[in-house]
Write a structure and sequence with these properties.
183 residues; mainly beta; eight-stranded antiparallel β-barrel; globular
Length: 183
């Protein structure tokens, strides 16, 4: 059952970006907070029983309010000690499966990204996921067309429900920092 509970862990971290442009620069320095939900999908790219996860969040940034969605699939990484000191299960991102977009409310502009790393520690005793990772910005629409850059994220998920087939639902919150580089 613990493995089924970890399936949501690698779903959603990096889904949110934005910040004001500094006067003499084409760089946007991001500070963002997010909260929302995560749930299991039906995909299992490598057929190991760990399903793709989907996250949907609302966010506040120094660019304004935004919403974001992201997907990703995890692989089992062995035992680990979670940040709360409890024994847990380590999960890492299956390369090529992590993708996200963020929509900024005031303009409707979209920012696209690809997760290049994510590590999750699932603590079965508290049903919590502790996650962190890195996203590469891969473009977008409007002011973000052609954008590049890198973002770091960290967050926590609270597993609220999981069934016998490993379908789960969780609440999540966290932060994102980094730099968006405009062309």
């Amino acid at each position: 059952m613990a493995m089924k509970n970890v399936l949501l862990g690698v779903t959603l971290a990096p889904i949110f970006w934005g910040a004001p442009i500094e006067a003499a620069s084409r760089e946007i320095h991001l500070r963002l907070e997010y909260s929302g939900s995560a749930m299991s999908g039906q995909g299992d790219t490598n057929k190991d029983g760990i399903k793709t996860g989907l996250g949907t969040v609302a966010c506040k940034s120094n660019l304004g309010r935004c919403t974001s969605q992201g997907v990703g699939e995890a692989v089992f990484g062995g035992s680990a000690t979670c940040p709360n000191g409890n024994q847990g299960i380590n999960l890492t991102l299956l390369p090529g499966t992590g993708h996200a977009f963020t929509r900024f409310e005031n303009t409707g502009d979209l920012l696209f990204s690809e997760l290049i790393s994510e590590t999750v520690c699932y603590d079965p005793s508290t049903r919590m996921h502790f996650k962190s990772g890195t996203d590469n910005i891969t473009g977008g629409t409007g002011r973000f067309a052609g954008a590049t850059g890198q973002l770091q994220f960290q967050g926590t998920q609270w597993l609220l429900y999981v069934d016998a087939d490993g379908n789960g639902f969780a609440a999540q919150k966290g932060t994102v920092t980094g730099t968006i580089i405009l062309p």
